[in-house]
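Preliminary data (for renewal application), adenosine-5'-triphosphate complex.
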Amino acid sequence: MTSPLLQVRGLHAQYGPTRVLHGMDFDVRQGGITTILGANGAGKTTTLRAVCGMVRTQGEMALAGERIDGKATEAIVRLGVAHVPDGRGTFMNLTVDENLRLGAYTRRDRDQVQADRERVFGWFPRLRERIRQQAGTLSGGEQQMLAVSRALMLRPRLLLLDEPSFGLAPRIVQEMFEIFGEINRSEGTSMLLVEQNAALALKLADHAYLLETGRVVISGSAEDIRSDESVRRSYLGY
Ligand code: ATP
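Predicted structure:
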């Protein structure tokens, strides 16, 4: 077996004196999609923030064997970790085009950046139509597409997705998740997906962890978890 792209062991995180994660272990395999599920306040958002160095942590995190715990966010981004935060994180006053350019700011390969912009428009054609429009005037679905596209402009090895379904119409969510699957298959981009919509996440992911107040209580292949009725009823509510 190849070593995982992201390996996390004994992860603790805290905001000031408030401890939120209590020794989590989890992996994202190379080219894989891992999902972290859990109720409101379980610590899902904090887990993603921990991976990209945005919150105080203890424990070990390694990306392709290189330790990233304790590194600054910018250094982690340069290693190929792109974060699509909850609340989307687009720059509302900038245009679609400007947001995409910002996504590629760490890259030196300018000619490839242009090609990647085209590739992003291939996945999200509506963004091409809105290229000069201010991000703040886009619909919720388009803003989420832009946030994902901006992250993809980094050519990430690992994409961190925080509740991408939040507040969007079911049809848009369906479309978005199909595109995540396509990107994963065609680009080999690994993903760490945090979701409240467990059914949706378990369809996309290959591996899942259930989080309860900062601890992993169940983990396994997404298929096993999906087909375990008692887990579904007790933890996933569907
Ligand atoms: P949600 O789906 O509601 O976002 P979550 O599983 O993503 O939930 P987190 O946002 O990671 O959970 O929050 C975990 C815990 O940390 C919660 O108890 C929350 O109140 C607390 N918390 C989150 N952000 C902060 C902060 N900036 N300062 C202090 N406590 C925080």
